[in-house]
Write a structure and sequence with these properties.
The protein has one domain: Orthogonal Bundle (Globin-like), CATH 1.10.490. The chain has 9 helices and no strands. It is globular, with a radius of gyration of 17 Å.
C-alpha cells in the first residue's frame, strides 16, 4: 500500500507542527462530524475520543516528519470506520447479485485503497457531497480556532488534495519534497 502525501505538505508542516493545535482541530472536527446526521453513518459508534486519538497519532507523524505513517493511517481507518460486529448478509439488498457495472465500479474502488482498513469506509460509498460536509466542518473549526488565513488555506488545500484518494478514486504515492 502507498501512503497519501500531498505537494503542500512541507509548508503545512512548519505551521501545523504544534501537536496542541493539531489536537484541538482534530477534536473539534471529529466531534462535528460524529454529530452531523449527513455523515455520521459512516463512522463507527466509538466515542469521539477514540476517533480523535487515532487521527491525531496519524497527523502528528504525517505533519511533523518524513516517516511512513501508513500503519497509523490504517489504525485510524479501522477505529473510525471499522465495525466490531458485521451486519447479517440477509440485510436488504445483500441477497441480490449486483449488476456488472456495479461490480466493475467496486473492483476499481477496491484497487484504490489507501490502506487495508480504508475498505471499511469504501463499503459505505462516500461521495463528494459527504466530503464537502467534512470540509465545511474543517473550515468552521479553523475559523473558531482563529487559525491564520494562510494556515487555513494550506490546511484546506491539503485536505482537498486527498479528496480523490479518500473517496477511493486514486491513490497517491508517498513523495515528500
Amino acid at each position: 500500500m502507498t501512503t497519501t502525501v500531498v505537494s503542500g505538505l512541507p509548508s503545512a508542516r512548519s505551521e501545523f507542527s504544534d501537536a496542541v493545535l493539531v489536537g484541538a482541530i482534530v477534536d473539534r472536527v471529529c466531534e462535528k462530524m460524529l454529530d452531523d446526521y449527513r455523515i455520521n453513518r459512516f463512522f463507527n459508534n466509538r466515542p469521539v475520543a477514540e476517533h480523535a486519538k487515532a487521527l491525531k497519532a496519524y497527523l502528528n507523524v504525517a505533519l511533523s516528519s518524513d516517516l511512513d505513517a501508513s500503519k497509523l493511517l490504517d489504525a485510524y481507518f479501522a477505529v473510525a470506520f471499522g465495525r466490531d460486529s458485521p451486519k447479517s448478509r440477509t440485510s436488504a439488498g445483500q441477497n441480490f447479485v449486483p449488476l456488472p457495472d456495479v461490480v466493475r465500479a467496486e473492483e476499481a474502488r477496491a484497487n484504490n485503497l489507501l490502506c487495508p482498513a480504508h475498505r471499511c469506509l469504501m463499503k459505505f460509498h462516500p461521495d463528494d457531497a459527504h466530503y464537502d460536509v467534512a470540509m465545511a466542518h474543517l473550515a468552521a473549526v479553523l475559523g473558531e480556532l482563529k487559525v491564520s488565513e494562510a494556515g487555513t488555506y494550506r490546511l484546506t488545500m491539503l485536505a482537498e488534495s486527498v479528496r480523490d484518494a479518500v473517496l477511493g478514486r486514486r491513490v497517491y504515492d508517498r513523495k515528500v519534497a
